[in-house]
Amino acid sequence: MKLKIRTKFIIIFLTILSPILLITVIAASYSIRNIQKSIYELKIIHEELNMVNNLQLSLQEVIMPGNDYIITGDRKYLNDFQMASAEMEKGLKEAEGLLNRIEAEPLGIKEEHEILKDIKAAWQNIKDISSEIFAIPDPVADKKAARLMEEMDYKWSYPAIKKLKRWKEIDTKENKKTEDNIKKVLRMTWTIIIVSGIIMFISGLSFIFISSRRFTSPIEAIYKQAEAIAVGDFNERLDIKTGDEIEGLGNAMNKMAAQLKDIYSYLEGRVEQFRAITETSNDAVICIEETGIIVLWNKKAEEMFGFSADEAMGKDLHGLIVPERYHEKSMKGLKPFFETGTGPLMGKTIEQRALRRDGTEFPIELSIIAMKIKGKWQGAGIVRDISDRKQAEEKLKERLDELERFKKATVQREFRIKELSERVEELEKRMGKG
Fold first, then answer.
1. How far apart are CA 260 and CA 254, in angstroms?
2. Edge to edge, what strands does the sheet with 361-373 contain?
3. DSSP code, position 237
4. pTM of this prediction?
5. Where residue 433 falls among pLDDT bands split at 50, 70, 90?
6. Cα 318 from Cα 293, distance rounded (Å)
7. Could you tell me the CA-to-CA distances from 336 to 219, 294, 340, 342 in Å, in that order?
8. What are 253-277's pLDDT values in tens digits?
9. Which domains does the chain have, with CATH numbers?
10. How far is CA 210 from CA 201, 213, 228, 284, 303, in A?
């Protein structure tokens, strides 16, 4: 079964990271549960602290009306006592309800239950003593009222307040313990995050190392084959058995190398044919590119102009073999030719003058064709030396001129002979008459 590279990467990645992720998830879940539990405990503790503060305040407020009544004898403090008593009763019920609600939680509320029990007992005695105090019609300077007030303060009120302080101490201690636990969990969480990050970093390096061994080796082989192809070695072949896209790429590279080898062999044959044709041609073959630089110079051109191929290649055509008086016109005509591949001389044979290496001019026949190579136009010129033909034409012209002069002389002689014949006949006629 062939697996894609992406699938292989995912499998390797998951194989390396799955245990780490599992451990991280378990640790994170544990931390989250602990933090949630600690937050819930803090909430309960804060509720307890608020409740204890309310009980302290209510206890202080329920004691004050009796004391004020003993000092002033004003019955209005009875209403204050009744209102404070209602608040105290309400606070005790809320406290009992809160403790019952959190009784199932492992928060150590056994001592709090005992404290609440003592507070309720103290409150009952405070309430009874306060009722006795308010039953005295004139409590001011009354010894019984003073004794009852002293009993209520020292026997029940102060111990109850002390018990509530102890409750606050318990809650404060539990609050600090819970906060410390949250800090501990957070430290552990950060430790897990840092350690997981380090492990993931190391795992990433391992993943890179494993991946490099599994994937870079065949890629390097493909790269070497590509370099070989670039320098013209098409015999290199790959043997990659990875079962994925890299193997497919290797097979494609092998196929491409074989095709390139065939194409290169074919092109080499065509090049050899072209070279043979140009080198054995009776005419000079010259090719130039857009800047007028010579890119082809065959053997006949060497013979005709006196420059070897090494001397001519890479040189400017105009500066080498074109007479200076034709430079401007020639370059002006080449500009549109290299832009469009067309021109007024395309498909025509013209007579022109050219320069040999020694600076002498001679007549040539020039035919120009256009070739588009790699998206750019190049010009190919077929050049024939017509010096012998021109000389033959000159000799022929001279002979024709001679024949014309002879013809004219012959005609003039015939006219002269005819004229003489006529004069002879005339003389003969005159002599016959005489």
1. 10
2. 294-297, 284-288, 376-385, 361-373, 349-355
3. -
4. 0.44
5. low
6. 9
7. 48, 18, 6, 7
8. 788 878 877 787 776 676 676 677 7
9. 5-207 (1.20.120.1730), 233-280 (no CATH), 281-385 (3.30.450.20)
10. 14, 5, 28, 64, 66
